[in-house]
Prior knowledge:
The chain has 274 residues and is an alpha/beta fold. The chain has 2 domains: 12-224, Phosphoenolpyruvate-binding domains (TIM Barrel, Alpha-Beta Barrel); 226-261. Helices cover 39% and strands 14% of the residues. An 8-stranded parallel beta barrel has the order 1-2-3-4-5-6-7-8, surrounded by 5 helices. β4, α6 (126-134) and β5 (139-144) form a beta-alpha-beta unit. The longest helix has 17 residues, at 241-257. The radius of gyration is 21 Å and the shape is globular. 3-methyl-2-oxobutanoic acid is lined by residues 28, 46, 48-50, 88, 142, 185, 187, 208, 218, 220.
Amino acid sequence: xxxxxxxxxxxxxxxxxxxxxxxxxxxxxxxxxxxxxxxxxxxxxxxxxxxxxxxxxxxxxxxxxxxxxxxxxxxxxxxxxxxxxxxxxxxxxxxxxxxxxxxxxxxxxxxxxxxxxxxxxxxxxxxxxxxxxxxxxxxxxxxxxxxxxxxxxxxxxxxxxxxxxxxxxxxxxxxxxxxxxxxxxxxxxxxxxxxxxxxxxxxxxxxxxxxxxxxxxxxxxxxxxxxxxxxxxxxxxxxxxxxxxxxxxxxxxxxxxxxxxxxxxxxxxxxxxx
Length: 274
Ligand code: KIV
């Protein structure tokens, strides 16, 4: 008789317990096969709205819909058993009011089975974070460079490069922590500011282009695998999958053209009659 080992998913309190402890390992993930590969190695997989650019070739994240997030969220849930799965709330699905945010976040939770949602914004989103967490939906916050605001910010700009900007960003971090977010992504933020915020707030900070002092790090998986021809400057590439895929496809094309492809007779030999 073989014992069935039940794998338990990482929980929100377990992620919170990483504050000032072991760094939280996070990666984005949008599909089932990669979710299976990542599952054993990461604490959190984020189904980020960056999937609009990475999976669908969009210019920005603004065209991503709730249905797209749910579709990819379900795929990642099917591919994983252990990591905590967070699904991004896309542009237009939560900003209007805490009630609308709750309704859409509840849809994400119910239709994907994920544990938590992420939404962009600091102090201006505190009321919404409080509202949804009080009603059972764990929220990861996201401050600093918030890609859904790039039209207003005038592009992807590192935040906090002058000390005059710091108090507002620190206030954002405190506001989301006080509102009940279980962690906060610090994206595209001057290193000393991200380190200072990490020391100042009670929830884990997850850095991306921010500081090694953060309580955890996240990268877009395709960037760190070498699939993005123009990755952000802070990304370390741990593989060259872009080059590997091209080489594999070149070899395949050359086999097909040279008729080196195994014929079906080798794989499924003809059965002898009688
Ligand atoms: O959408 C995303 O992938 C993100 C991460 C970059 C944090 O928000």
